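During the reporting period the student researcher (J.K.) took over the structure-prediction task from the postdoctoral fellow and processed the backlog of single-chain submissions. One of the processed entries is reproduced below for the supervisory committee.
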Amino acid sequence: MDPDVRAMLTKLFTVSHPNTVGQVCIDCAVNPPKPGDPSYATFTSEREGILVSLAERAQLVTDAFNSIPGVQCNEVQGSMFAFPRLDLPAKLISQAKRLGQEPDYFYASQLLEHTGVFVVPGSGFGQKPGTFHFR
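J.K. obtained the following structure tokens:
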């Protein structure tokens, strides 16, 4: 092990820091192996495998939402968060308003109550007025 790295790890382990292992892992994430480093090929291969897997799952999520009538979802990019748009029936919107609830909140509440599926209403994320979403 590089003497400077050993000195830094010794310092980290002897001083009271929260989650030292997490700090070391973050350092590895933000300072990955570079071309020529012994672990560069392994790192690159593993990273590409993870990115391909995430892209496939993101596409699966997008396709699944878009297959549901009344739901449109932009392609999931950059994270695994989708923000599908709901075409809510006028009757549901008026019922929600009668109850003093945002329509997407009402939809999310009914979804949870009737199916056990939990989603977060989009009204908490600054959605465009007149549109309804969930996460």
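The committee noted the following: The beta strands are 71-72, 85-86, 132-133.
J.K. will present the remaining backlog at the next meeting.
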